[in-house]
Design brief:
It contains four helices and no strands. With 119 residues, the chain is mainly alpha-helical.
């Protein structure tokens, strides 16, 4: 063989080519990634917030740490609303598809009028 040519990194893209595809159970979904991240952050927060008395952080840090999940939830909600608003504001109009749809609607109305339906 030619020293592994054709294996390993895919042609200049920097991705690894696997000898066989992963099964759906083996590939981590986006939901799984989010849940793992939330579990990691939640366990770190719980370890700091619910620490034994000898390992507790100073009072000012603790006062900021306890409501942190609520702050993060509000920040995530604001980010989600901003993302939806931005996507809605920059949504592309499909003028050709709209014209085609209007033609289909006109043809359907004409067909229904021909069959005796009145609007």
């Amino acid at each position: 063989r030619s020293g592994g040519a054709g294996r390993g990194l895919a042609a200049g893209r920097g991705s690894v080519r696997l000898s066989r595809p992963l099964s759906p159970q083996a590939a981590m979904t986006k939901l799984g990634q989010w849940l793992c991240g939330l579990a990691l952050l939640g366990s770190a927060w719980a370890a700091l917030a619910l620490a034994p008395p000898g390992l507790r952080p100073p009072a000012p840090y603790r006062q900021a740490l306890l409501p942190l999940p609520v702050y993060l939830l509000v920040a995530f909600g604001c980010y989600s609303l901003a993302t939806v608003g931005y996507r809605l504001a920059t949504f592309n109009d499909c003028e050709e598809a709209a014209a085609e749809l209007q033609e289909h609607i006109g043809a359907a109305r004409a067909d229904l009028r021909r069959r005796g339906l009145r609007f």
